[in-house]
Amino acid sequence: MSMHFKPRRATCIVECEHGILLTETSHDLLLLPGGQANRGESRLEAAIRELKEETNLQAHAAIFLFDHESRSNRHKVFYLIASGTPIPMDDAKALYYYDTLPANKAAKLSPATREIIEHFKAVKAEHQHHLDALKAICLKDKLPL
């Protein structure tokens, strides 16, 4: 019996004024912020680190939403509340917002990103009041994680 190893990826959903934040890779692929966890690093720690490295946003709260297995990764998807002005850094060459994505860029969304966002929308519809309360509490004092 052979088992295919899939990297452990921390995937971030961050809602900004213009929608869900996306990063563009050097291969013109649009992904949710995130990346692989380093040895000894939890995926929550990786999510917070990757968000800062890719977008310069400072996380103030993070909650685990769900697991997602894609063709190439095992994702732990986190909802992060962050502050700052998003700017592309590290391996993100540009930033976009899912809700205002130009048609020519929508074709560049990874299949996993599409699936994760659709799953998130269902979770959000059921738990919007909890997410709003979390934002209000966490952004009041803006204490970094």
Tell me what you see in this structure:
GO terms for molecular function: hydrolase activity. This is NUDIX hydrolase. The structure is a single chain. The longest helix has 31 residues, at 111-141. This protein has helices spanning 43-55, 103-106, 111-141; strands at 8-13, 15-16, 19-24, 30-31, 34-36, 58-69, 74-83, 94-97. Helices cover 33% and strands 31% of the residues. It is an alpha+beta fold and 145 residues long. The strands form 2 sheets. Strands 5-1-7-6 form a 4-stranded mixed β-sheet. Strands 2, 3, 4 and 8 form a 4-stranded antiparallel β-sheet that branches. The radius of gyration is 15 Å and the shape is globular. The protein has a single domain (8-141), classed as Nucleoside Triphosphate Pyrophosphohydrolase (Alpha-Beta Complex), CATH 3.90.79.
Summary of the model, kept short:
The protein is an alpha+beta fold and 145 residues long. Helices cover 33% and strands 31% of the residues. Its cofactor is Mg(2+).
